[in-house]
Design goal:
With 191 residues, the protein is an alpha+beta fold. The protein has helices at 9-25, 33-38, 52-68, 88-107, 147-156, 163-181; strands spanning 42-46, 76-80, 111-116, 141-146. The longest helix is centred in the middle third of the chain and has 20 residues, at 88-107.
Length: 191
Amino acid sequence: MSDPMVIDAAQAEADTRRWLERAVIGLNLCPFAKAVHVKGQIHYVTYLDTHEGRLIDALLAEARALVALDAEVRDTTLLIVPHALADFLDFNDFTERAERKLARAGFDGVLQLASFHPHFQFAGTEADDIANATNRAPYPTLHLLREDSMDRAVEAFPEAEAIFERNIETLEALGPDGWTALDVGPGSATP
């Protein structure tokens, strides 16, 4: 595995695309991801700084850029953070602060923030529980989603509330060795 300190923007984006294609779309963890991926409506941006305060500023700038464009051009944004927030609890705290900042900036009801982290852990689970892989990405990642697009996707997908349970079943069937075989970690893709 590559040293995370040598990850550049091209590598971070390539690894994230590989994770999206092999895990998120490949395992159908998010039934809404394939359409926006195929249409080229996902914007990838890499934050290479280590300063968390400036990361909030970058997130707000990406939120403004996202809503300034038509959804047909850019439906969602993945902000990849390879050099900051390596500790999951710090990342989790940061995500809560980021959600509050987005709401105060007027994005409440307009955008949702989803989060992914290499060490993501649901409350009440053990670190090695395969269910945690549903939210594990190669790098800390902040995902800006349009509320309108999510509403339409959920409306079109029968039993959207069952996605989480189905994902757990998928990952339990795949197992830790199967997840490892997907090869979706840092440095796994060719930029």
